[in-house]
Amino acid sequence: MQNMRETSGKREIMSTKRVILANNSRLLREMFHRVIDQADHLEVVREVQSSEEIIFAIQRFCPDWVILSLPLSDFVLNSISASIQSDPSVRFIFFSDDHRSLKTDWQMTSEVEVSNLSLQEFIHFLEKDLQQI
Questions:
Q1: Would you say residue 108 lies in a domain?
Q2: Of the candidates 107, 104, 102, 113, which has an alpha carbon nearest to the alpha carbon of residue 83?
Q3: CB-CB contact of 43 with 17 (8 Å)
Q4: Rounded to an integer, what distance in angstroms lies between the CA atom of residue 116 and that of residue 102?
């Protein structure tokens, strides 16, 4: 599914992005899921509640985004780093332990600041895929 729209001289290709939600709180997973379900170009393909499930879920469900809000072992962090290096299409958003800040990480860039975005801006950030055509 792809839509195209013109934005400030660039064409923006909007295709459905696959999302994995990783949080040990069922309430927070369900809240994120509901918000993402309202977006036109996002689809939650898997929810995980423990760090042990993340690597398998990434391999099985081929997400565009993994939104993480879990304590992560060194093994899982190393596996995520390897995933970033081997698959440039997977992008990660990490919530800080106190949930006050976010950090993004993927092969093409690192640590984009998204903490001050509104919910609508955050969803648009997840949806967009700017490409010069």
A1: yes
A2: 107
A3: yes
A4: 9
Classify residue 17: in a domain, yes or no.
yes
- The total number of structural domains in the chain stands at 1
Task: Please answer whether residues 52 and 28 qualify as being in contact, where contact means their C-beta atoms are separated by less than 8 angstroms.
Answer: no
The Cα 8–Cα 83 span in angstroms is 33
In angstroms, the CA 1 to CA 99 distance is 32
Q: Which long-range contacts (CB under 8 A, 24 or more apart) does 51-59 make?
A: 51/22, 51/76, 52/76, 53/22, 54/20, 54/22, 54/79, 54/80, 55/79, 55/80, 55/83, 57/20, 57/22, 58/20, 58/83, 58/90
Q: Which two tokens stand for residue 81?
A: 């780093």
Q: Where are the alpha helices (DSSP H) in the chain?
A: 26-37, 51-61, 74-86, 119-127
Q: Is the pLDDT higher at 80 or at 1?
A: 80
Looking up residue 80, the CATH number of its domain turns out to be 3.40.50.2300
> For the whole model, what pTM was predicted?
0.76
Q: CA 80, CA 60: separation in Å to the nearest integer? A: 14
Q: State which residues form the domain around 63.
A: 2-127
Query: 122 or 45: which carries more pLDDT confidence?
Result: 45
